[in-house]
Amino acid sequence: MIRVDDQEVQWFEGMTVTDLLKQIGYEGSCAVVRINETHVSRPTFDQTLVPDGAQVYLIPMIAGG
Question: At 57, which helix (H) or strand (E)?
């Protein structure tokens, strides 16, 4: 199991950040994901593995003007 913000999510071997976002049905625009203490940016979501037991935080894109 992993924890995404305050929600427990089933983990599977080889899970990437992209897989995780699809699994939880995340439809927002997430610019950065923090896995434990490591920040991961969108261009590497497909290659970044999520370890079992990880604490994941979704950091949405915020724009202003």
Answer: strand 55-60
